[in-house]
Amino acid sequence: MLPIFIKNELNLYHKLKIDNKGVFQVPPLKIEIPKIYKTKKFACRSLKGKGVQSGIRVIYAYFEKKDKIDLIEIYYKGDKENEYRERILKHYTC
Predict the structure, then answer these.
(1) Which residue segments constitute the domains of the chain, with CATH numbers given?
(2) What pTM, to 2 d.p., does this model score?
């Protein structure tokens, strides 16, 4: 799952600057560096028949100058509506 995510979401959006409407910056967290992103159009084979509408969400921090990501959270939208914002703020606003 992660190699596909890296190839089809991270590389397209951050390296090739191609917006396939699947990556969104998480607003408003009041964190300038790193930028926090959420991917929405991410298919999961174990949820057959759903394709990119499977409801898998990947939350990550992107450090542009270092070209580095921190995976923060992967969740199924059916179990949880939104990212855990308190954890993000606690970790990145020291």
Answers:
(1) 2-92 (3.30.2310)
(2) 0.77
